[in-house]
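Risk register update: the risk of archive-format incompatibility is retired. Evidence:
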Amino acid sequence: MTAKILDGDAIASEILAQIAQDILLRDQQGYRAPALAVVLIGENPASQVYVRNKKNACQKAGIKTLNYDLPNNTSQVELLALLNKLNHDPAVDGILVQLPLPFQFNTTDITEHISPLKDVDGFHPYNLGRLAQGRPLLRPCTPAGIMLLLEHTKEKLEGKKATVVGTSNIVGLPMILELIRAGATVTTCNSRTVDLIAEIKNADILVVAVGKPNLIKGEWIKPNSIVIDVGINRLSNGKLTGDVEFASAKEQAAWITPVPGGVGPMTIASLLNNTLLSNINSQLDS
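Archived output:
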């Protein structure tokens, strides 16, 4: 048995086309196009690539980007002042601060300073709290994108045993909440989990978001399961790989995401979905 590939590039392209169609229709009805403020600090090569990909997706979908490329020595006070300005600008629907930030910043303070109504990454405690209550507004992008991938499998999630490896506020924790909302029985694994292999072997749905290349071995994968690999790691030879041993895991699973081209494009698609939603909500209130 060889797993079917969950092609995030193809699915995300369909979502971007639908967003573009929705924006065009709203334009014909006289509504302003969505605008996303993109804040990039310093010259981290990986961050520059991620930001470029997000901007390209916005251009395809018809979302305007407002670019704020700041020097590496920008202070926290200066960044907070910019965010305050963007928070109060009615022409800005979403605010994206590309992570990781340079050492002088307190990332938690920065993400909490973004208005939760413009928090299109879904990092703000307000948005995480609404998700926990089952009343999501702007959902964290990577878990939201993963749910779209799971929807694409046409597999019923209710009653399935789901295991999430990694408990970050950005991916792991909101992923757990999304799966609970979908009716799955969820197990959480972290660095202190006593028998990680046993937990993985029991998982109908496995989501791995750790950031350690090939941490999860293919022989651990439950046959006919769904494997979602969030990790993206660059090896010494320059090749990108995930947290799961792809070649051996795909011989066990029913569905699996590749790295790259799996979860990453879906994260961007969810970012644009959130930006459009924020734009619609702001114009409903005006």
